[in-house]
Design a protein that fits this description.
The chain is mostly beta strands and about 160 residues long. It has one helix at about 5-15, and strands at about 25-30, 40-50, 50-60, 60-75, 75-80, 85-90, 95, 100-110, 115-125, 130-140. Strand 1 (about 25-30) and strand 2 form a beta hairpin. It is globular. The structure holds copper (II) ion. Copper (II) ion binds near residues 68 and 79.
Length: about 160
């Protein structure tokens, strides 16, 4: 087991500690950056047992964190903040992936290198208005290992 896998396993242990929570996050990863790069994306599979919305996110490595979606506008692929939060239908896994939904880390304060683990906090609001905070430790994957083109899927 190399260091990166060990870190990923540690992240899973942390996640299962919040297994009582109704929202689970799997396969979380962040795309690595080159020096001076100011933005990157976090991807994951999120499942809410009772249905909820992902309303906000934060990370100490980024000045601004937003939930984004990619959408075609005419012939141009654009990304924008998801209005009112990302819908998480009950029992259905929502996949955040390159070319689709992602958690956008902007105004990065440091380079994100493969092998790093980045703390990310997700705030999910349930149907009853109750907020659930998910503390994640997300492994950074190599820049080249992720899809460079927005339309290409990254498969595990
Ligand atoms: Cu974005």
């Amino acid at each position: 087991m190399n260091t990166r896998h060990a870190l990923a396993a540690a992240a899973l242990v942390l996640l299962s500690a919040s297994a009582l929570a109704q929202t689970t996050v799997k396969e979380a990863w962040i795309r690595g950056t080159v020096a001076q790069q100011k933005a990157s994306g976090m991807f994951a599979q999120i499942t809410s047992a009772q249905g909820a919305r992902l309303v906000s996110a934060a990370s100490p490595v980024a000045g601004v964190v937003e939930v984004h979606e990619m959408a075609m506008e005419g012939n141009v692929m654009k990304m924008r903040a998801v209005n009112g939060g990302l819908e998480l239908p009950a029992g259905k896994t929502v996949e955040l992936k390159p070319g689709g939904y992602h958690v956008m880390l902007m105004d990065l304060k440091q380079q994100l290198k493969p092998g790093d683990t980045v703390p990310v906090t997700l705030v999910v609001e349930g149907r009853d208005g109750r907020k659930e905070t998910l503390e994640l430790k997300v492994p950074v994957h190599p820049l080249g290992g992720a899809a460079p083109a927005p339309m290409t899927e990254h498969k595990h």
